[in-house]
Amino acid sequence: MDYCQKIHAMNAALDHTPLAMVDTYGCQQNEADSERLRGYLSQMGYGFTDDEHQADLVLVNTCAIREHAEQRVLGNVGALVHTKRKNPNQIICLCGCMAQEPHVAKKVKESYHQVDLLFGPHALWRFPELLWRFKAAGKRVFEFADDPGSIAEGIPVVRQGSVKAWVSIMYGCNNFCSYCIVPYVRGRERSRKPEVILEEIAGLAAEGYKDITLLGQNVNSWGKDLDCGMDFADLLKAAADIPGEFLLRFMTSHPKDASQKLFDTMASSEKIAPCFHLPFQAGSDRVLKAMNRVYGRAGYLDKVRRLRAAIPDVVITSDVIVGFPGETAEEFEETMTLIDEVGFDALFTFIYSPRVGTPAASMEDPVSREEKLAWFQRLVARQDEISEAKHRAYIGKTVRCLVDGKDEKGLTARTGGNRLVRLTNGAEDLIGRFADIRITGANKWSLSGEAV
Ligand code: 5AD
Ligand code: SF4
Questions:
Q1: What pLDDT sits at residue 150?
Q2: 420-423 and 91-96 strand pairing
Q3: Over the stretch 384-419, which tens digit does the pLDDT of each residue have?
Q4: Which whole-number Å values give the CA distances from 386 to 389, 413, 444, 448, in the listed order?
Q5: pLDDT, tens digit, for every residue of 186-211?
Q6: Domains in the chain, ordered, with CATH?
Q7: I need a surface site. Which of 57, 84, 98, 177 has the fewest CB within 10 A?
Q8: Which atom of ligand 2 is nearest to the CA of 281?
Q9: pLDDT confidence of 293, banded at 50, 70, 90?
Q10: CA distance 249 to 165
Q11: Phi first, then psi: what are they for 149, rounded to 5°?
C-alpha cells in the first residue's frame, strides 16, 4: 500500500487523471484477480477505460489453458505496438498464467519490447511494488517468482458489478491432470482462512450482492492444508448461515472430492444454488487414467446419481476434452454415450491442446486435427439437442430468478441453476432483485419469460 501511495503522488502531479485498461482472458479466477488489480490501480489514482488508445496503462491478465487463448493474447499484445507508438509513455503490463510460463516470459522479453512489466500469479500481490520499480528506474521489470508464498490478504477490490461477486477461497491445484498447465503456473493448493472468507461474504451480503460464487480450481479440497477442523461443505454451510437474501454458488469441483456430505449440505439450504459444475473430461476409463483423473466412468456416474438423489432439480454442467493424445474413435464414442446417460444442462467442450511441460504433451497423438474436429462437432451437435430439450422442459413453469442485468435485447435473469432467462417485460428497477418468472420460450442457449 506504501507503493500505491508513492505512485498516487506521481499520478497526482500529472495534468490529467491517468487511465488504466485491464484486459482479462480466461477463467473466473482471472476475473477475480483482475478485480484486485483494479483495486490496486484505483488506490494508485488511476481511472478506468476500455479503450487502449486512451489508456496510460494497459494491464493484460492472461490465460494459458489452451494454445488458442495464448495466441489471442499475443496477437493483442502485438497490436499494442501501435498504441504505444502514438503514446510512448503508455505502460504495458502482462500478468496471469502465461507470464508464469518460462518459455512465454522469454519470448515476451526478447520479441515484445512494448511490454514494460511482466509478473505471474505468484507475484500479483506485489504489483504496486513492481510498477513502482519500473516507474522509478525506467527499466523493464520481469518478475519470475517460483514460490507462491503465503496468501496476501487485504488487497483492495474494485468489483465489476453490484449484483454478482466472486470470492476466491483457495488458489492453485494439486491434481496434475496430465494435460493441464494450471498446477505449474498457479502452484500448489493454498486455502484462505475461513474467517476471512466468511467476513468477505458477510460484507458482500451487507452491501446487497445477491449472487456470490466461491472460486477455486478444486473447491472441494478447500481447508485440507489449514488444519482448521472445517471442510468445504462446512464452509458452505457457514456461508449460507450468514443473514441476507443471496444465493451461493461454487466452482470448480473435481469428481474425486465431490462428497455425499457436500450434496447433503446443498440440499439442506435454500441459499445454496442447485447447480453443480462437475467436469468429467472423458467417457473412457483408459483415457481418464491417462489423464490422471483418478476416477472412472462408473464412479463419475455414481456421483451424478447421488447428486440427483439429494437434489432432484439440480442443474449439472461439465467440461470435456476431445482428442486427448491416443484417444481412439471407440473411446470417443464412450464420451458420446456418457453425455446421453447424464443429460448435462450445458457442456463446455474443448479440443485437446498440448501445453509445454505437461506429461500429455509428450504422448503420441496420431489422430488428425480434422478427425478431432469432426468428433468435436458431433459432440457439440448432440449436446445442443440435449440442452434445448432440457430448456424446453421449463416452458410453462414459474421459476424464481435473480434479475442480474440488461443487454441490447432487454433484461436478463438467472435461474437458481444459473440458466439464462431473457425477460420479455419488466423495468430496470428489477435488476438486483429476485422475481418469479413464467417461462414462455426456450432454445439451446437460453430461456425467455415474463416477470409475474
Ligand atoms: N487442452 C484442452 N482443454 C483443456 N482444459 C484444460 N487443459 C486443457 C488442454 N490442455 C479444459 C478442461 C478444464 C477446462 C477449464 O479446460 O476441460 O476442465
Ligand atoms: Fe487442471 Fe486438473 Fe487441476 Fe482442474 S483439477 S486445474 S484440470 S490439474
A1: 78
A2: unpaired
A3: 999 999 999 999 999 999 999 999 999 999 999 999
A4: 5, 22, 8, 18
A5: 999 999 999 999 999 999 999 999 99
A6: 2-143 (3.40.50.12160), 164-392 (3.80.30.20), 398-451 (2.40.50.140)
A7: 84
A8: 7
A9: very high
A10: 10
A11: 65, -160
Cα separations in angstroms, 237 against 166, 169, 213: 17, 14, 14
Q: Is the pLDDT of residue 381 over 90?
A: yes
CA angle 268, 318, 396 (to 5 degrees): 65
Residue 146 has pLDDT above 90, yes or no: no
Ligand 1 proximal residues by C-beta, below 6 Å: 65-66, 179-180, 279, 281, 319, 321, 350, 352-353, 355
Count of Cβ atoms closer than 10 Å to residue 339 Cβ? 19
Q: Cα(218) to centroid of ligand 2, in Å? A: 7
182 lines ligand 2 (CB under 6 A): yes
> Which listed ligand is nearest to 293 at the C-alpha?
2
Choose one of 31, 70, 319 to mutate for the ligand 1 pocket test, by most ligand atoms within 8 angstroms of C-beta: 319
Ligand 1 atom nearest to CA at 179:
10
97 lines ligand 2 (CB under 6 A): no
Does 220 sit in the ligand 2 pocket, CB within 6 Å?
no
Ligand 2 atom 2 nearest Cα: 177
- The average confidence (pLDDT) of the chain is 96
> Tell me, what amino acid is at 87?
N
Q: Is the pLDDT reported for residue 144 higher than 80? A: no
3-class secondary-structure state, position 169: coil
